[in-house]
Amino acid sequence: MQTKKLSVQNAIIDAAAEEFFKYGFRGASMRRMAKNAGTGIGNFYNYFKGKNEIFAYIVSEQYAKTQIIISRTVSEKPEIDFNSIRDIRLFCQEFRHWLMRAEPLFNRKMFLLLARSEGTPFQSVKDEIVTGLTQIFTSFFDFRKNAEIVPPSLFFEHIINNLIQIAENQYKSAHVRQIAFNHFYSSCLGYILCSINI
């Protein structure tokens, strides 16, 4: 049995993340992962028992972080009452500041959870996030009963799909996190300003 080396493990993890990005969980090949990591399939099994284990290893921390941020935000009151702000510039500043707590969610691992996890225990993450965002925004913002406004759940489903598209197009970019966050911020801000009275 070969001795485990951190450099080999990291190479396997990097190759696996790339494989999952390209092919999704179901289409990913452990042989390709091993080859792209510069090791053999036998040595691969010294580090991970299979696709389920390595996918979970890559995304579990991100999943836990996402759950914490959403549940914490749902349960706490915001530091500022957005419904009492009547100055649009101040509203935009305060909203961006409040939304920054979610910035750690905008990364490559989150993309794997949202778009490449079908066939894993994480495949419901997209629905969980849409539900969580809908709960947060409907409790924090006083949406008008307006037939012309898209329901929050449909809006957030659309936004998540847009973020997936951004991640697919910008996956290798060092700025993917900032690009995704800015899109999320501007889309949510536009939706809120169209939906509430300021």
Pattern of helices and strands: HHHHHHHHH
Low-confidence stretches: none
Distance from first to last alpha carbon: 67 Å
Outline, from the CA principal axes?
elongated
Helix content: 55-70%
- Structural class by secondary-structure content: mainly alpha
Number of helices: 9
Share in β-strands: under 5%
For the biggest sheet, the summary is:
none
> Mind telling me the C-alpha Rg?
20 Å
The whole-number mean of residue pLDDT values reads: 88
Total strands: the figure is 0
Tally of distinct domains:
2
Descriptive keywords:
Arc Repressor Mutant, subunit A, 0% strand, 198 residues, mainly alpha
Characterise this structure.
It is a single chain. This protein has 198 residues and is mostly helical. The protein has two domains: 1-48, Homeodomain-like (Arc Repressor Mutant, subunit A, Orthogonal Bundle), CATH 1.10.10; 58-195. Helix content is 69%, strand content 0%. The chain is built from nine helices and no strands. The protein has helices spanning 6-27, 30-37, 41-47, 51-75, 88-99, 108-115, 125-140, 152-170, 176-195. α1 packs across α4. The chain is elongated, with a radius of gyration of 20 Å. The chain starts with 5 loop residues before the first helix and ends with a helix. The model has no long low-confidence stretch (mean pLDDT 88).
